[in-house]
């Protein structure tokens, strides 16, 4: 069965005017139809198809072992979409609690990066022809609650508080790294190459941030905290 031509969809005009977000996005059809012949494949069955072809597609749909995986994939995207929004709010609060200038800058930068990542996720939903929806993520809520508590339990203006913020932020990054790493691989498995590229772009940024936080801790903050 040949693949359907890419459908053109227009990006939500309310999205910020990043050049990469102001173009039309085609809904991405899986490259490997044998692995992803679900509803989209059913939709490709137009009047030109013979009855036999229709039956064949229907049977591919029924036997598609990845349709459950696709459902899981979309729900996991809704989960990380929720998580990114919660992280953005948390960074807006936490950045002002840090003392070390480098840490403040890293948190500010990551707040901007997070906004960009949210836009990429919205693009992912569009590519999949799905509505961008949030699904409550208890894991990120728990980590962010812990970050808040660590900040409350450390002295204002102390380097020990900065240590706590770095460890908390790295817990967040590692959660995101695990999520984006896994989801990018699932996207590849399902044949969604553009989606995989977007998820990998988010993954790279999380890894860079994690590395930067380690550097700030090891080069300045930990030593200064040890002197308090
Ligand atoms: Fe993120």
UniProtKB/TrEMBL annotation:
Q: Which domain of life is it from?
A: Bacteria
Enumerate composition-biased segments (Basic and acidic residues): 1-12, 18-65
List, alphabetically, the Gene3D superfamilies matched. 1.20.1260.10
- Pfam families, per the entry: DUF892
InterPro entries (UniProt xref): DUF892_YciF-like, Ferritin-like, Ferritin-like_SF, YciF
Instruction: Tell me the segments the record calls region Disordered.
Output: 1-65
**The protein's name:** Ferritin-like domain-containing protein
């Amino acid at each position: 069965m040949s693949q359907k031509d890419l459908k053109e969809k227009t990006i939500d005009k309310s999205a910020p005017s990043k050049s990469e977000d102001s173009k039309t996005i085609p809904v991405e059809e899986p490259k490997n139809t044998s692995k992803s012949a679900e509803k989209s494949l059913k939709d490709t069955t137009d009047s030109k198809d013979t009855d036999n072809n229709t039956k064949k597609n229907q049977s591919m749909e029924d036997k598609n072992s990845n349709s459950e995986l696709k459902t899981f994939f979309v729900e996991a995207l809704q989960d990380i979409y929720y998580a990114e929004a919660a992280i953005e709010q948390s960074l807006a609060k936490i950045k002002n609690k840090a003392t070390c200038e480098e840490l403040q800058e890293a948190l500010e930068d990551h707040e901007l990066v997070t906004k960009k990542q949210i836009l990429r996720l919205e693009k992912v939903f569009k590519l999949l022809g799905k509505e961008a929806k949030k699904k409550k993520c208890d894991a990120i809520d728990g980590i962010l609650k812990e970050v808040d508590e660590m900040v409350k339990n450390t002295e204002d203006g102390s380097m020990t508080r900065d240590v706590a913020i770095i460890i908390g932020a790295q817990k967040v990054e590692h959660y995101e790294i695990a999520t984006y790493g896994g989801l990018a691989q699932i996207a590849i498995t399902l044949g969604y190459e553009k989606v995989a590229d977007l998820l990998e772009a988010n993954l790279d940024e999380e890894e860079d941030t994690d590395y930067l936080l380690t550097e700030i801790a090891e080069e300045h903050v930990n030593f200064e905290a040890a002197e308090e």
